[in-house]
Amino acid sequence: MDIKAIRKGVGNLTQAQFAERFGFSLGAVRDWEQGRKVPDQGTRAYLKVIAAEPRMVERVLEGA
Q1: Residues 43 and 37: beta-carbon distance below 8 Å
Q2: What pLDDT shows up at residue 43?
Q3: Cα–Cα distance for residue pair 53/2, rounded to 1 Å
Q4: What is the pTM of this model?
Q5: DSSP designation for 36
Q6: What number of CA atoms fall less than 13 Å from residue 61's CA on the CB side?
């Protein structure tokens, strides 16, 4: 899973912006992009939804 491509595809966000917007830690985003760690199954599913429908995810998170 190419986290950097997802991040760039949702608005060319920085790692910090992506982490804050979608509820990840900055360290996790860095680790995923640098290949030190792999997101767990639930996080991978969430990342796929973010990649497909980022605006919908943002709307849902704003209401949370």
Answers
A1: no
A2: 98
A3: 16
A4: 0.92
A5: S
A6: 15
